[in-house]
Specification:
By secondary structure, this protein is of the alpha/beta class. The chain contains nine helices and ten strands. An eight-stranded mixed β-sheet has the order 6-3-7-2-8-1-10-9, with helices on both faces. A two-stranded antiparallel sheet has the order 4-5. Helix 5 packs parallel to helix 9 and helix 6 packs across helix 8.
């Protein structure tokens, strides 16, 4: 098997025009970054083919302490209705054979796992926003089957180990990774977590790690810095860095609304 591409994406519902209703223009750099990401993925798929399955890591998928939570529902549905946009909706399918192979492989690699059936993913905008943004770059706008997983229960070293384990996943299928995560939620006084100077420290470190492919500075961030910065994308980024084993191409970064948004893609 092969990994066709990996993408690090933000997930602010406001960038969906049905939610933003004009406010999405306040995140113009992110909109441009997502447009560039679609172009890159389209070009990659022309060369490498469309992946048979997407693995989506979302910090807003269910949390299971000490484990990677994997959704084993055969079909899932959800929308951005909580943000006033019920029409921004997706219906997704989970491929059972791919899920079974993934779970067996990760278990053998020492990744702690838990599973559960969650058919309604409306509360998981960490999955919905990136997939709604990226669907147009797939043939006929149709997403491949997906496996949804929540990495928040893992430690930071375990998240990196997860990505490293994915490198050796065997089988005839091609995969794509969507690593969803926002950066600091404390960049300005009106940010969701209030202001902390740790916000810029964290965001600079995460963007630099994606550019260089070196996860070690992220693993060595003081826990107080991470907590005060109020992130939700560190584990997703570490997993992607573990998988790609080198630099990604950072397409955009900005901090509107007091929250850091970054987009990045591999291969560069």
């Amino acid at each position: 098997m092969a990994w066709t591409f990996a993408a690090f994406t933000p997930h602010p519902p406001v960038i969906d025009p049905q939610v933003g209703r004009g406010r999405e223009r306040e995140a113009a750099t992110t909109l441009h970054g997502m447009d560039m990401l679609r172009q890159h993925i389209s070009a990659i798929m022309k060369e490498r083919g469309v992946p048979d399955v997407l693995l989506v890591l979302s910090p807003h998928h269910p949390y299971a302490s000490g484990t990677l939570f994997c959704n084993n529902a055969p079909a899932m549905h959800g929308s951005l209705a909580p943000f006033g946009a019920p029409g921004a909706a997706l219906n997704l399918q989970t491929p059972p054979a791919h899920l079974a192979a993934l779970l067996q492989h990760l278990q053998g690699a020492g990744i702690p796992l838990s599973t559960g059936k969650m058919e309604d993913i409306t509360r998981d905008h960490g999955t919905l926003v990136p997939l709604l943004q990226l669907a147009p770059c797939f043939p006929s706008g149709t997403l491949p089957p997906v496996i949804l997983a929540g990495p928040v229960g893992l430690s930071y070293p375990q998240a990196l180990q997860l990505g490293q384990a994915l490198v050796t996943l065997q089988g005839p299928s091609n995969w794509g990774l969507i690593a969803s995560g926002d950066l600091s939620h404390a960049l300005t006084p009106n940010a969701p977590s209030g202001f902390s100077p740790c916000g810029k420290t964290l965001d600079d470190a995460m963007v630099q790690a994606l550019k260089t492919g070196d996860p070690k500075p992220l693993l060595h961030l003081p826990e107080q810095t991470v907590q005060q910065a109020g992130e939700c994308g560190l584990r997703s980024a570490l997993a992607m860095l573990g998988l790609i084993g080198g630099p990604a191409k950072v397409l955009s970064y900005e901090g509107p609304f007091g929250v850091g948004y970054a987009t990045a893609v591999w291969p560069v």
